[in-house]
Amino acid sequence: PEIYLNGLADQTPPFTTDPTRLAEAARERLADGPYWYVAGAAGSGATERANRAAFDRRRLVPRMLTGATERSLATTVLGEELAAPVLLAPVGVQGILHEDGELATARAAAGVGVPMVLSTASSHTIEDVAQANGAGQRWYQLYWPNDDDVTVSILDRARRAGFTTLVVTLDTWTLAWRPRDLDQSYLPFIRGVGCAIPFSDPAFRAGLAKPPEEDVLSAVLKWVPTFTGTDKTWDRLPFLRRHWEGPIVLKGIQHVGDARRAAAAGMDGIVVSNHGGRQVDGAVASLDALEPIAAAVGERLDVLFDSGVRTGADVLKALALGAKAVLYGRPYAYGLALGGEDGVRHVLRSLLADLDLTLGLSGHSSVAEVGPGSLSLE
Ligand code: FNR
Question: Which residue numbers delimit the FMN hydroxy acid dehydrogenase domain (predicted)?
Fold first, then answer.
C-alpha cells in the first residue's frame, strides 16, 4: 500500500529501486575512485560475472492456491532470531563512500531490523559503530591479524561493544590483483578516510614508534604486515575459540573439503563466498559451490551465503540451495554512496519488500518452506 500512497502523493524514491541499476546510478554520482572501489573485481571480472550467471541459470517454480497472504520472513541463525534471512555483508572503509560511513549503515540497519557485519577495516571505530547501531543486531568480521595482541584487543573491544557473532574472513589474506583499484592508485589511508584500527586500537598503537596521527605512513607500513600473510592454518582456530565466547563463522569457503574441515574444527557456521569475485578471478561461482557444501555440512553447522545476491528472488534461490541466510554486499554500498543512512535504508527496505512479495507469489508463507522443491518443476 505504501507504494500506491506514495504515488498518489507524488513521492518518488530517492534513487532507483532496482538493485540491478544501482551501479549505474552510482556511476553518475561518484568519482572514479569510490565507484571502482565498490564496482571493481579481481582480474578480468570473470568470477563476478559467473556469480550472476549462476543465479540466472536457476529458476523458481511458483505454486498456486497456497494461501500465502500472511507471511513471515523470520528465521533463526546461530541461535539468534533474525527478522529476515538477510545480513549486511562486511564492507571496509565506508568513509570512502560517505562521510558518515559505517555510522550511517549501522543506523539504517538497526532501523530496518537487519543485522550488520562490521568490517575490521571500518573507517569508524568499533565503539562508535556500536553506539550508532543502538539496539540493533551486530556481528564482527575479523581480518585475522598476525599479531596475537592486536587480535585479542580487537576481539575484546568487539565483545564489549555488543557484537555477538564473529565472522572470520579467510579469502583475503592479501588483496587480489584488482586492476581498477590499481588504476586509481587507491590509497584510502593517505586520503584520510582509512581504517580506524591504527588510530583507535591500543595494541596496534603500542607497536608504533610514533602515533599514527603524527606519522600515517609508518602506521600504513605496519598495517600491511599485521593484516596480510599466510601464517594461518586450520590448527590456529582453537586460538580464536579461546578468545571469543560467541559463535564463530568462517567466511570465504568454496570447497566441500574446507566446509568439512570447518565442521570438524567445531565452527558454528560458514559463509560460502568468493568475496563478490574480488579475490580469485576465474574462481567457481559462489552459488554453484553452495549446493554441494550445504548438502555435506548443512546438518552440522549453519551455512550462510554471499556473492551476487541482488533481488528477493536471489535470496530465495540461495535458501532453496541450502543457505540459512544471505549477506548483502555491493547494493547497500551503492545506497550508502547515493544517500547515506537514507540510501542504505531505501536499498534494504526495497530488498525486504521484494523478498516478501516474491516469497508469497511463489507460494510460500515462510522462509522455512523454501527448499529444493522451490526450484523443481515436479
Ligand atoms: C567487500 N567485502 C568484504 N568482506 C570482508 O570480509 N571484509 C571487508 O572489509 C570487505 N570489504 C568489501 C568492500 C567492498 C567495496 C565490497 C564490494 C566487498 C566482501 C563482502 O563482504 C561480500 O563478500 C561481497 O560483497 C559479496 O559479493 P556481492 O554481493 O557484493 O557481489
Answer: 11-378
Could you tell me the distance, in angstroms and rounded to a whole number, from the CA of residue 181 to the centre of ligand 1?
A: 14
| Assembly ipTM | 1.00
Return mean pLDDT, the chain: 94
DSSP string, 25-87: HHHHHS-HHHHHHHH--STTSHHHHHHHHHHHH-------S--TTS-B--EEETTEEESSSEE
CA of residue 253 to ligand 1 center, whole Å: 14
Closest CA relative to residue 309, chosen from 9, 54, 79: 54
Q: C-alpha grid cell for residue 186?
A: 587507491
Q: Where are the domains of the chain?
A: 2-60+78-366
How is domain 2-60+78-366 classified at the CATH fold level?
TIM Barrel (3.20.20)
Closest C-alpha residue for ligand 1 atom 23: 275
Its pTM stands at 0.97
Per the DSSP assignment, residues forming a β-bridge with 325 are 304
Q: Which of 319, 328, 344, 262 is nearest to 117 (CA)?
A: 328
Is the Cβ atom of 141 under 6 angstroms away from ligand 1?
yes
